[in-house]
Design goal:
about 300 residues, alpha/beta, Rossmann fold, 2 domains, nine-stranded mixed beta sheet, binds iron/sulfur cluster
């Protein structure tokens, strides 16, 4: 089983429409007979909008811990306040309470309290799901707004997807990575064999692509690049191409700006399925063929 992760330095570079097209193309490609999908963009999970999933199983996801003080048991000694490095303990009359927003969950106060007045609790901050999609099994998740721990949720989604792929001997695990370079991206790229970066020729495009490349290289993952909406700013595309050439990073192809991509997304379909002859679909098919060549070489 090979793990391919699709990345971009920031959101809006066409990562999910690329992943959705790959899901469709993989599904009808006899060279890659079986694929498991993981949507690792848990803060803005939208692969499901185009893969038409039917949920088979959902599980709660619990976030990090936070401290709670029992006012009945609190002696008001202030020991917890002394050890809290996050200023999360607030005085309230004769006793203390915890500001759950400021609390880091370190549990220092829990161990320090002389009267066992503090409990550590966790709360449900999201859900992860296994779904049957139009193109194969899909693991995805919803994180509640303004919740942290998205890196841990990405790890959870990936672990389950990987377990299924290994146990049932799937050929490919295709991961739609989160944008940016933070913890969720690190969770998404860990264990990947190959990363494909969707770069966009905007003014910040090279900067965003470099961030994604640096993250992948840090983990020793082979990286490839494709340029999305390459014709909207040819000078930017040329700059991306020159940057990659200098660093011997292969550019698999360019995808032209194509309104059909947006139309397909609004219809809840990968563009390659919605309009196979659209310019973007033809470009995506060529890029997919080159990706498959890399995957097959890695398997040999
Ligand atoms: S350490 Fe325990 S008893 Fe002392 S103020 Fe904090 S919660 Fe209350
Ligand atoms: S768990 Fe840590 S951060 Fe939270 S209140 Fe206790 S000492 Fe402060």
């Amino acid at each position: 089983m090979i793990q391919l992760v699709i990345l971009s330095g920031k959101g809006g570079a066409g990562k999910t429409s690329l992943t959705a097209a790959f899901a469709h193309l993989a599904n009808k490609d006899p060279r890659i007979p079986s694929v498991v999908f993981a949507d690792a963009d848990v803060d803005a999970s939208n692969l499901e909008l185009v893969l038409d999933p039917h949920k088979l199983e959902s599980r709660e996801f619990r976030g990090g811990q936070f401290a709670v003080i029992d006012p009945e048991a609190c002696l008001g000694c202030g020991e917890c306040e002394t050890v809290c490095r996050f200023d999360a303990i607030l005085r309230e009359g004769e006793c203390c309470r915890v500001d759950p927003i400021a609390c880091d969950g370190c549990a220092a106060c829990f161990y320090q309290c002389p009267n066992d007045a503090i409990q550590m609790r966790s709360q449900v901050v999201g859900e992860w799901h296994l779904s049957d999609s139009a193109f194969g099994p899909l693991y995805h998740a919803d994180l509640q707004p303004a919740q942290e721990n998205s890196g841990k949720l990405v790890s959870t989604v990936k672990q389950h997807a990987r377990k299924l792929a290994e146990e049932e001997e799937y050929d490919l695990l295709l991961v739609d990575g989160p944008p940016g370079i933070g913890c969720p991206v690190i969770s998404a790229v860990s264990g990947a064999d190959l990363a494909l970066i969707a770069a966009e020729p905007s003014l910040s495009g090279i900067h965003d692509m470099r961030r994604a490349l640096e993250t992948a290289h840090h983990f020793g993952i082979q990286t490839l690049v494709c340029i999305n909406k390459a014709d909207i700013y040819p000078a930017g595309s040329a700059e991306i191409a020159s940057f990659c050439r200098e660093r011997e990073i292969e550019i698999l192809g360019t995808i032209p700006f194509d309104e059909m991509v947006i139309e397909a997304m609004t219809q809840g379909q990968p563009v390659t399925r919605y309009q196979p002859e659209a310019p973007a679909s033809r470009a995506l098919q060529e890029i997919w063929d080159r990706v498959v060549n890399h995957l097959l070489n890695m398997n040999n």
